[in-house]
Every structure is written in structure tokens, then in C-alpha cells.
Amino acid sequence: MADTDRRDTGPEDAPGTDPEAGPGTDPEAGPGTDPEDPPGTDPEDAPEPDPEDAPEPDPEDAPEPDPAAGPEAGPKAADGARPRWKKRLRRIALAVLLILLVPLLTAEAALRVTYMGDPADGTHTRDRDAMWLGHAWVDGRKTDADLTALARELKTTGIRDLYVHTGPMEHDGTLPESLYPNARRFVEGVHRELPGVRVQAFLGDVLATESPDGMRLEKASTRAAVVGSARQVLDAGYDGVHLDLEPLHSGDRDYLSLLDDVRAVTRARDARLSVAAHQIDPLPGFHSFWGTVAGHPKWWSQEFFGQVARRVDQIAVMSYDTMQPLESLYGGYVAQQTSLALEATPPTTHLLMGLPFYHENRFGHWNHAETVAAAVRGVRLGLSRTDAGRERFGVAAYIDFAATEEDWASYRDGWVR
Questions:
Q1: Is the dihedral of CA 262, 263, 264, 265 positive or negative?
Q2: With contact defined as beta carbons under 8 Å apart, do 222 and 216 qualify?
Q3: 92 upstream amide cis, omega within 30 of 0
Q4: Distance from CA of residue 163 to its chain's centroid?
Q5: CA-to-CA distance for 33 and 41, rounded, in angstroms?
Q6: Using CA atoms, how far apart are residues 109 and 112, in angstroms rounded to an integer?
Q7: Residue 350 domain-assigned?
Q8: Containing domain of residue 309, as a range?
Q9: Could you report the per-residue pLDDT of 284-302, keeping only the tens digit for each?
Q10: DSSP character for 76?
Q11: Is residue 72 part of a domain?
Q12: Which of 187, 377, 382, 414 is deepest in the core (most CB within 10 A)?
């Protein structure tokens, strides 16, 4: 979920033969003629040569062999070498393919096994769920009637936190107030219609980690400006700050420093600090491998995930856009991610697992595979196997304006009950 991807701007928001010669033809000779026959003679009337009259070859006239050439020198040797090289190349290609495919297929098979079994009793909502909302709620496009309809939808769920898109921030960390003119009215309306539900300002930007353009957290002035933006939205009435900075590489110390500074502000104001978190390495060190191969180290180490989780009140895993091609594999992946996140998150931090309430077909996200039903079942399986009694735990739906009735039904039937 990249902040500048602007999924909130939908309808309601803003990979032998010579082509020049035909087979068996001589371009120099006409059809049915022999160039060595003299004109006016019939080849069938010529006397047959007597083999005994043929002169015997003189051994001295034979060309001497080239000592530099091996016994297989000459055209026949060259023709024999080609098939051997082709076979060797085929074997190398097959070996490389197996080296890549065997670990991948093994990992996918493990995910399918992870998706098997039954979730434990009681692995349902703790009434600590969340949802990401589009920008239209705070820029004036949504009306009071829209808020009433949203409240009606949410009252039958366990959603208690709303992350409403309020940015994006500028690359220098500042936040133009003109982006959210209706924020205070929206927050007050939610408090009136949905008592106990918090509204957090969803602030994000693209980081300059994989391209020259973007926010640079290594600059102290930029981090200070982000802290100022956090103060700014709290002044506008928000109940907390939700940061989504991408692509954020594992081990980023400047990001950890930023979280420390922002949390000092939110604690002083009795507000929440939450973050959207990258997925955790499915295999140890996988983010380093993927960064070398693809230039995009998508995952975080489990250690870094824990360092982030200890600095915030809530951490929401973006457990979608997983590249999984089948629903069972996606569900097994979510189960694995849930277990890894539970292991790394202290019980004092509220952990949420993301649900894909949006529908796209592209590399990285297959709509037929990444379903809400599979994600919910995967969450319940991971929770059952790792810490079934964890209280500060929930799911987070992304995103309101793309949600379908089937998404809501899968969430309610599988998780709320």
C-alpha cells in the first residue's frame, strides 16, 4: 500500500534453417538440369566408366595433416562439436532452472500445508479491528449522508480505529493544511455516530530509497518536519497519527529515530501512534536476497519488525500484494505472516493483519487468490498456532471505497460472527 498509489482516487475518490534458401534447392541451377552435362548430350547414353581404368591416388599427392589440428579437425569435427555444446548448454539451463524452482516449489508446498487444519475456538474479533479510509472523507467530497451510511456499516463490525488518508506529505515532511479542510467535521461526526471509534490521520509519502525522488529520512530537518505534521493533525482533532512510508528498507535507523520522536508527541497528547508495516521475511534474510535480485527488498527482518513494534501503539501488517497465485497459497502465507508477527510483537502493542478489500489483477496481486475469506482463515490459523489468547490483536481492512458486499460478508462471517 503505497501512499502515492492513490487507491483512494477511484470513482468516488478522486515478460537450423536458412530463411533465404528453400529446402533442397540450388539457386544457381534451373529446374531439372545438370550444369556439368554438355549441351545436346543425353546423360543416359554416356558409357559407364570402368573402375579398373581409374588412376590410383598417389599418396605423395595427399595433403599432409596439420599437426596443430587434432584428429577431429575439419568440417566434420566442427559439426560434431556443435551438438556437444548445445547439450552442455541445455544441461546448464536445466540445472539453473532446478536451482530456482525446487526451493520455490518447496516453499509453496509448505504454504499449502500451513493452510490446512481448523482454527481454534475463540479466534474471532476482539473488537480491536481497523480500516483504512480514502481521502474523500476529509477534503469535502463526502457528505453527512455518507457518514451515516458508513456508521451503519461499521456498527455490526469489530472496527474501532479508522485510518483516514490525510496526506500525502511533501517530500520535505511538511503537510499542506489545504489537503484536509473537512477533517475536524469528519472526526466530530464519527465521535457522534460511532462512540468509542478513533480517527487517526493516515500520513504517508514515497521514500527516496529506490529512486532519486522522494522523502529522505536521513535528513534531520525532514524528520523534524514530519513530527511537526503529526502535531498539526492532532491540533485538527485527530485521535492519532498513522504513518505509511514506503518503500522502507529493513534496518532503517532513521525511521526508528522518527518513531521515537513522533511517539513523544502522541503520548503527551494522549493520542495513538500506528504504522503500516511491511511483511516479514518468509525465510531468514530473504529481504537481502530479493533486494539483490530485484532491487526491491520488499520484506523486513523479523528483528526489525519487532524494533518497530516496540515503538508504536499499533502496527498493521500490509498482508496483501503477496505474489501468491492461488487462494490456498495466499491463505497459508497470511497464516505464516500472522505467526511471525505475533512472535515479534510485544503483547503491549496492538497487532493488526491487513485484509484486501480491493480488487486488482497485476503482478504481485491476483484478485482470485487474495480474497478476504482466505486472509481471515489464514489469520485465524496463525493466531491459533502461535498465541490464540492474544488480546491486543485484530484485522485491518484496506480500503473502504473499493470494498464489495462479498468482502464485508467474508469479514463478518469468518471473523466477527
A1: positive
A2: yes
A3: no
A4: 22
A5: 12
A6: 5
A7: yes
A8: 116-416
A9: 776 566 556 767 788 999 9
A10: H
A11: no
A12: 382
